[in-house]
Amino acid sequence: MSSPIFGVLVVVPEELRKFGAALGAEAEKISALTVAPQFGAAAGALAGADAALVLAQAPELVQAAFGAVARRLDGLADIAGGNADGYAAADVWPGDEGAN
Q: Is the Cβ–Cβ distance between 80 and 16 less than 8 Å?
């Protein structure tokens, strides 16, 4: 956010940490998703059809995509946490040196 008083970027480290934690939590949820049973049921319903062959390969591809998204979110969570720590360490105003 930009401060109208100072005209500079103001970062609230605790909010940045919360954002990082939220990203990490979503990454965990995505990592826990499983799709094989749903694709298996669809393939079973279409037994003998060409689509059933494609559905048999789909779980591995979808899980790989979910894994990529989860890893990206984990990486962003780490960056947010590290940046929050950096801002907290650097954010010292004159007369406020002992606050952090």
A: yes
